[in-house]
């Protein structure tokens, strides 16, 4: 069912929700130090949860159901929602936030027993087979041969998603204030000229800085940011109209057109494909007019 309301759809992508519990890191389970290649587990945070900057000695794959997760790695923000996961290589410093009530799954991979290497964070296609195998590996009663067989199949089927949901932040002190303000409120409709006046620099400087740092114009980057936030809100069950209003679009049709420009398809078609691939046909936006 499409949610007409779930409270207000907060526009901020990296704004800390009220009542968020901040944790230092995701603890590594004891069995991860045993001679296993993969150790998987499931948790359901009762409140919005944030993990402060940390790293792991093991590779980590995490994914969610019934909510969303964002992870910030240096100058990039990754969006994780149903049907996709995020691979975090060992040693990479990152922070994360999960919505309350989301099923938070993660699997830890021992580097010297993992026969492949993703050298940087990467979106992973969470197919029904991959999820089932990792759920199987979360059992504590598997004998060594059964575990080895399941682990070998995981290594065969895990693969990157064709969509890499990473938003590149500028990392340029001249325009970082713009990026942080828009992360907090993607609906901010301030023009290039208004931002130049606020920062006391020329609009040409802002334009060049965004191009050099992100490969996008200021307008394109803000549109990309809004689509990332839209992916989170839509996957949490908000209607297209609600999301459109929360992100500052005058009409839902304008939002749908912007989504199509970035993702190559409409919100409804995108989530249809994502949920079909993950084995879950429930689509929070497929019944919304013009989606």
Explain this structure.
With 291 residues, the protein is of the alpha+beta class. Helix content is 35%, strand content 20%. It is built from 9 helices and 11 strands. The strands form 2 sheets. Strands 1-3-8-5-6-11 form a 6-stranded mixed β-sheet, covered by helices on one side. A hairpin with a 2-residue loop joins strand 5 and strand 6 (76-81). Helix 6 crosses helix 8 (252-263). The protein starts with 20 loop residues before the first strand and ends in a 13-residue tail after the last helix.
Notable features of this structure?
single chain, 291 residues, alpha+beta, six-stranded mixed sheet, five-stranded antiparallel sheet, 9 helices, globular, disordered N terminus, disordered C terminus
Give the structure's gist in a few sentences:
With 291 residues, this protein is of the alpha+beta class.
Tally of helical segments: 9
Distance between the termini: 15 Å
For the largest sheet, list the strands in their spatial order.
1-3-8-5-6-11
Mean pLDDT: 84
**Which of globular, elongated, flat, extended, rod-shaped describes the shape?**
globular
Low-pLDDT sequence parts: 1-6, 281-291
Strand content bin: 15-25%
**Which structural class best describes the helix and strand composition?**
alpha+beta
Question: How large is the radius of gyration?
Answer: 20 Å
**Number of β-strand runs:** 11
Element order, helices and strands?
EEEEEEEEEEHHEHHHHHHH
> Could you estimate the helical fraction of the residues in percent?
25-40%
The main pleated sheet reads as: 6 strands, mixed
């Amino acid at each position: 069912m499409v949610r007409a309301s779930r409270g207000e759809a907060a526009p901020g992508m990296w704004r800390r929700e009220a009542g968020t519990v901040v944790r230092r890191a995701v603890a590594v389970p004891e069995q991860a130090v045993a001679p296993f290649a993969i150790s998987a587990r499931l948790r359901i945070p009762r409140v919005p949860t944030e993990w402060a900057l940390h790293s792991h000695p093991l590779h980590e794959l995490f994914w969610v159901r019934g909510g969303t997760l964002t992870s910030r790695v240096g100058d990039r923000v990754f969006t994780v929602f149903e049907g996709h996961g995020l691979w975090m290589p060992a040693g990479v410093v990152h922070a994360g936030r999960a919505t309350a009530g989301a099923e938070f799954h993660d699997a830890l991979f021992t580097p010297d027993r993992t026969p492949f290497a993703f050298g940087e964070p990467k979106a992973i296609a969470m197919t029904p087979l991959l999820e089932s195998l990792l759920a199987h590996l979360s059992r504590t009663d598997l004998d060594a041969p059964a575990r080895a067989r399941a682990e070998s199949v995981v290594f065969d089927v895990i693969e990157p998603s064709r969509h890499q949901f990473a938003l590149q932040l500028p990392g340029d002190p001249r325009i970082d204030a713009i990026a942080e303000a828009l992360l907090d409120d993607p609906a901010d409709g301030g023009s290039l000229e208004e931002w130049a006046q606020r920062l006391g620099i020329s609009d040409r400087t802002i334009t060049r800085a965004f191009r050099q740092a992100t490969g996008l114009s200021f307008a394109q980057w803000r549109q990309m940011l809004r689509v990332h936030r839209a992916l989170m809100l839509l996957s949490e069950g908000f209607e297209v109209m609600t999301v459109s209003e929360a992100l500052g679009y005058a009409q839902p049709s304008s939002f749908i057109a912007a989504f199509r420009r970035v993702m190559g398809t409409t919100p409804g078609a995108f989530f249809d494909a994502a949920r079909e691939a993950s084995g879950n046909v429930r689509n929070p936006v497929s019944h919304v007019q013009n989606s």
